Amino acid sequence: MNDSKDKELIVETIWNYLNGQNNREYKLVEKAWHNDCQMFGVTAENEVVIYPRSIWREWFANPSDDPAAKKKAEILNLDIYKSVANAKVRTVIEGTKGTIIYTDYLNIIKMSETEWKIVNKIFKTDFEPKKK
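^ thats the sequence. predicted structure below, dont judge the formating
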């Protein structure tokens, strides 16, 4: 496969994850993430956490975020080498209490000629309280 087609498939995988996360569509997250994928992160309180892919199902069933929050996601960087890739993405959620910023580093592997999957993620969460 050519490099531009691989890049297109990788970007599609990333947006499946971002759109699934932001719109609570587990099928999109499931499509983007490998079955054995895990997330490792540092919360806004500097707590280290580890989650399996299945946690999304629980989060979507019992959302804790502000339903009126404005969400914006973007791909900040993409590095591709043959059958592996790394992406830096950011999601900003502006809610009534303040702004949550998720910065994710996604490791992505080519599973077949037509499929790339996120195999792990590390993230940092930041929170900026709303100024009164």
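The CA atoms of residues 1 and 93 lie 36 Å apart.
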